Amino acid sequence: MTQATTGPEIEDERVSVVVVSHNRREELLQSLARHRAPVVYVDNASTDGSADAVSERFPDVDVVRLARNAGAYGRTIGVRRARTPIVAFADDDSWWAPGALATAAAHFAAHPRLGLLQARILVGTEERLDPTCAEMAASPLPGDPDVPGAPLLGFIACGALVRVEAFVEAGGFDDVVRFPGEEERLALDLAGHGWHLSYLDDVVAHHHPSPVRGSADARRRALARSAVLTGAMRLPRRDALARVRRTVAAGAVQRAGARDALADLPAALRRRRPVPDRVAAQAEMLRRAPVPARPGHREEGQR
Q1: Cα(106)–Cα(148) distance, rounded to whole angstroms?
Q2: How far is residue 93's CA from residue 124's CA, in Å, rounded to a whole number?
Q3: For residue 3, what pLDDT band results from cuts at 50, 70 and 90?
């Protein structure tokens, strides 16, 4: 299927945008109009008419209708439909600033082992810097002098771009971890395959968080589930078990998330492939790195 833009001109022919959404039609329709690239929209089994509305309003968008909500795995489905070497991810409440896609494409072209680029995310109409971006900019990880930006072992999907070659080699987002907290497993595998992940603040994304979302406790519970499953899939046995113990000790909400993980634990263990020692050591370095306390801090594994 031929891809085309949602309205504005194509900013860089090397980049397309993959958007995944579930039951946020109004936010989706507003954000789609801002993308300066071919768009693949993966509808995660919405029941609010999102897919039909996009097809009607934006006939050039490649709409993929899923029969069930696949969570973050929908992005992997979207990347498979894309026809560009670079994919920028966006949610229904995020979009890329003018010039961001072209700047990112130039970075990828100049640095062949750059697998993922994390943008500077500005939140809300006040354009506040996402606090996680500030943490990323101060990454304690050892960098490569030939790769720009701060080295990472995690990212925020709604403000990230990937080299499709690297994404495919690392297995993309999976259908075990799903959402939220899906980024860590992919980041570990990208690093394990020798790809670099970098935070670069000259690439900018906007995020206006949708009011249509679950409670903070529900999110913390889901993040705890993802952290346990990611540990089971990729961390050394000792580190994975230590993560379970920390999760259980963190509180009732996190304990519930650990219990939720039990249903998917057999699938996680079937896909278990511990990362190289150097990557496991970096993950432990990040865990031990001091992080300023703040409301809404991302759970373990989400930096």
Answers
A1: 12
A2: 10
A3: very low
Question: Could you tell me the two tokens for 234?
Answer: 């990729």
Residue 147: what pLDDT?
Answer: 95
Cis-peptide, bond into residue 180, ω within 30° of zero: yes
d(CA 149, CA 119): 10
Q: What is the DSSP letter of 157?
A: G
CA angle 195/197/198 to nearest 5° reads 140
Q: Which has the closest alpha carbon to 19: 176, 205, 147, 153? A: 205
Asked if residue 37 lies in contact with residue 104, where contact means CB atoms within 8 angstroms, the answer is no
Amino acid type, 201: D
247-258 per-position pLDDT tens digit: 999 999 999 999
> Is residue 293's pLDDT more than 60?
no
Looking at residues 10-23, what average pLDDT do you find?
97
What's the predicted TM-score (pTM) here?
0.92
